[in-house]
Design a protein that fits this description.
Helices cover 30% and strands 26% of the residues. By secondary structure, it is of the alpha/beta class. The chain is globular.
């Protein structure tokens, strides 16, 4: 897509999200699919951007329309043409797309979000890369400002600066520091209630203290980019960490005498586990193993960087140079994997067609599981309505998926028609 074309797409999405019109509609002739299963020949009634009712019988639809005080003429009707109707995807961990990162200010956020939105990610936590502390503070303030006009932005995720030097991945080693109380408070103050999660290495000095403070502030501490042993990881989870950042990547692996953090996360039912399902960060047999070992707790994430949606070539991740070849991003300096160019649309397709995972289970990993991890699967202070299911009372974050390819054909976010 040309630059002018994607700037047009950005404007259309921004205009749609700001519009108060068109949020009353019916989607008919679809198979509803979410974590609970598949319901064929279904309809979905939406009023003011919230799902009012779902069903399968025309007479029930007529009754629902009358009961809510609407007339059929008040509603736009969408023929789903036999598509799957799924909840909008939620990405807990992504850095950008379309040559822009979420660290690039409001314009960069709008451009990168547009690409993910068009491919079904209706809500996103914006991941901010490790930078000098003052830069990270300003980026947090930017996300807070953006959230005032964008319901699709759920908040920020700090991947750093409290990471293990030995497991830094594509993060600038010169910016990695211990989570002292002063640094923790500075970040919390800058975010002002909009920081959703922070990845940290619990073994760093002040690590456990920081986990407890973040939990107290309503932030999810995620174990990741760490060299923690099993005991330390268990202690982190017991201290309130309920998330593991892209499991298997940037952490010590499983050893039969040194189990490390991965078994600690797999056996703890309180922990949601991020997985990058691109077959490159984690090979298919291991992905399948993880899905079975932590059923219902796997959240697909993309870790997508600025090259997502772009051709191979030279890019930046923070201040570091990255080369993308065959869609895979690596640091120029040492060849380390530098994020991905994955989108959740592709992750769902891979899960079903390459991993053999059922469609409802795959959809769950990009909808209700991340929603539950953030606490937005029920009434909350972050979103106008719960997320993660095609269900009465939930936000009308809806996707129409091609029944053969699972490609996203139409998108609604908060009842706003996007594509």
């Amino acid at each position: 897509m040309s630059k002018n074309a994607y700037l047009d797409a950005v404007k259309k999405i921004d205009d749609s999200l700001k519009s108060s019109e068109g949020r009353n509609f019916v989607v008919r002739n679809v198979s509803v699919v979410d974590a609970r299963g598949i319901v064929p020949n279904a309809w979905i009634l939406v009023k003011d951007g919230v799902i009012l009712e779902t069903g399968i019988l025309d007479e029930d639809l007529a009754l629902a329309i009358n009961a809510c005080g609407l007339r059929a003429s008040d509603l736009s009707v969408v023929d789903g043409r036999g598509c799957f109707a799924a909840p909008g995807y939620i990405d807990l961990h992504a850095h950008g797309a379309w040559e822009h990162s979420f660290d690039d200010g409001a314009e960069g956020i709008a451009i990168a979000r547009a690409y993910h939105m068009l491919h079904g990610t209706t809500r996103q936590v914006l991941s901010l890369i490790t930078n000098p502390l003052d830069v990270m503070q300003e980026n947090l303030r930017t996300v807070k400002r953006v959230m005032q006009t964008r319901p699709d932005v759920l908040g920020s995720h700090l991947e750093g600066p409290f990471l293990a030097l030995s497991r830094k991945g594509a993060h600038d080693p010169n910016c990695l520091v211990d989570p002292t109380p002063e640094r923790v408070e500075a970040l919390l103050e800058a975010a002002d209630g909009t920081l959703r999660q922070i990845t940290l290495a619990p073994e760093r000095e002040h690590g456990m203290e920081a986990i407890k403070r973040f939990v107290e502030a309503g932030v999810i501490p995620a174990v990741g980019h760490c060299d923690a042993d099993y005991k330390t990881a268990r202690a982190a989870f017991n201290a309130g960490s309920t998330l593991m950042t892209h499991m298997f990547n940037a952490m010590n692996g499983i050893h039969h005498r040194k189990p490390g953090p991965i078994p600690a996360a797999l056996e703890d039912s309180r922990v949601t586990i991020e997985l990058i399902n691109d077959g490159f960060h984690v090979e298919n047999p291991v992905l399948r193993m993880a899905f079975k070992a932590a059923a219902g707790r796997i959240a697909f994430v993309t870790d997508a960087m600025a090259a997502t949606g772009c051709a191979d070539g030279a890019y930046k991740l923070g201040a570091l140079d990255v080369t993308v070849t065959g869609g895979h991003a690596r640091l120029v300096s040492n060849g380390a994997i530098a994020g991905s160019t994955l989108i959740l649309e592709v992750a769902i397709n891979r899960a079903v067609k390459e991993l053999g995972i059922g469609l409802p289970e795959a959809i769950a990993a990009a909808t209700i599981v991340p929603a539950r991890a953030l606490g937005v699967d029920k009434p909350n202070a972050i979103t106008s309505a719960p997320l993660g299911l095609v269900e009465k009372g939930y936000a009308a974050d809806l996707l129409l998926l091609n029944p053969g390819t699972l490609a996203v054909e139409h998108v609604w976010c908060d009842g706003h028609k996007i594509s």
